[in-house]
Amino acid sequence: MSAPQRPAAPRGTRDILGDEARLRAHVIATAAETFARYAYAPITTPTFEHTELFARGVGASTDIVRKEMYTFVDGGGRSLTLRPEGTAPVARAFVEHGMHKWQLPVKLWYAGSMFRYEAPQRGRYREHTQFGGEALGSPAPEVDVEVIALLADIYAQLGVPGVELRLGSMGDPESRAGHREALVSYLAGHLDDLPAESRERMELNPLRLFDAKDEPTRAAMAGAPRLLDALSAAAAEHHGAVEAGLARLGIPFTRDDTLVRGMDYYTHTVFEFTADNLGAQSAIGGGGRYDGLIAELGGPETPGIGFGCGVDRVVEALGDAGDAVGGVEVYVAIIGNELRAELGPLVRELRGAGVRCESDLRGRGMKAMLRHAAALGVGTTVIIGEREHERGVATLRDMDTGDQREVSLASLVEELA
Ligand code: HAM
């Protein structure tokens, strides 16, 4: 009889285990704390939405909508889509709940899975986790600065190495219309140099060619007119105010006149953070302003700005730096069943005092308990045998050095907490 075939996770998805899973939880907890300090409230939206929302919100000409959505028809014949990103759902919720009547800006944050049918590679998954923040209801450049500072603070708090910030502007519709004309007429002179795919993208949105990876398109785009040079007076003023605000906060950035983002909703400020140890998929977070999105979804004219951060990539960028986060700290090795029963409350007491601890649950002997403690990577093992118990003490073993010392049972919790 052949062995039954074992199930495996779908291509482009994965299980997150061990140190990586702990680090992931730590990253989201750190983000949650920082969001709270910036007066953001949490929001949870459904994992799937009407397909229409993304077609309208993200844009029908984007790769996300054209090629990457997990769309299905449910039992009631509705077309639904697993969310590929978090901004359109939050904007939908803003309109649906009449949040324009709340104190503005409304600041919301979320964390959860996003789904994109992309070619899987290092750092690029078909289900990935993002946390993101959205501030809706103020056009002021101070909001742009605050949003960027918030994400920079999260990276600093986590200790992500080699973080860099690139800043650009999509201008307002007026700037974009003028620039588009100039860009299309420039490209008309380079059509023969462009591969078919670039010509197709050009029809949909010529700006996307700044993001091309192939050499011929890159060469052609090197001399193309830049949107940053074509900003209207109002858009240039906004951009200047954001740059000045970041400089005042001492947040370093590079001005990037080719920064293209994957959604059509952006206006004015766009930005991306990268980490230098990730290879090709180095973007750990990005976002920008979307002053037309709420109106596009049927709400009142309301400006907005936000970002999404790729948790999988942040965890990878942290790498070994995060190994110790949230692991078990103390192992309680009690020898003998009777003593174990008698001292049972001790483990709970330690946990109540905030110590992350484990004890044996399988009737191991002393040696096996020490092996278990070592496998868990604890710093300290508490050993209590008959002899210790009679004298009212416990032996504390430092698992790195092997050094042992005694403490009184009465002061054990205080000692370890
Ligand atoms: P995004 O740049 O498409 O923006 O995604 C945000 C971040 O999610 C990226 O910087 C990256 O770290 C991570 N990410 C994206 N796709 C993948 C993937 N396939 N695998 C792993 N990580 C990935 C947005 O989604 C916008 N909603 C951000 C935003 C919020 N703009 C305004 N408000």
3D structure, described in words:
With 417 residues, this protein is an alpha+beta fold. The protein has 16 helices and 16 strands. The protein has helices spanning 18-37, 51-57, 63-67, 87-96, 141-158, 173-188, 196-204, 215-221, 233-248, 293-296, 311-318, 337-342, 344-352, 366-376, 386-391, 412-416, and strands at residues 41-42, 48-50, 70-73, 79-82, 106-115, 127-136, 163-169, 254-255, 267-275, 283-289, 304-310, 330-334, 357-359, 380-384, 393-398, 404-408. Strands 1-5-6-11-10-9-7-8 form an eight-stranded mixed beta sheet, with helices on both faces. The N and C termini lie far apart (55 Å). The relative contact order is 0.12. It binds histidyl-adenosine monophosphate.
Give the strand content. 15-25%
Segments where pLDDT lies below 50 for 5+ residues? none
* CATH superfamily heading of the largest domain: Bira Bifunctional Protein, Domain 2
Distinct ligands, ions and cofactors found in the model: histidyl-adenosine monophosphate
Radius of gyration, in Å, reads 27 Å
Span of the ends, CA to CA: 55 Å
| CATH class division of the largest domain | Alpha Beta
Strands side by side in the biggest sheet: 1-5-6-11-10-9-7-8
Helix content: 25-40%
* SS summary, helix count: 16
Q: What's the main sheet like?
A: 8 strands, mixed
The CATH topology annotation of the largest domain reads as: BirA Bifunctional Protein, domain 2
Question: What structural class should be given to the helix and strand makeup?
Answer: alpha+beta
What gross morphology would you assign? elongated
Total strands: the figure is: 16
Number of domains: 2
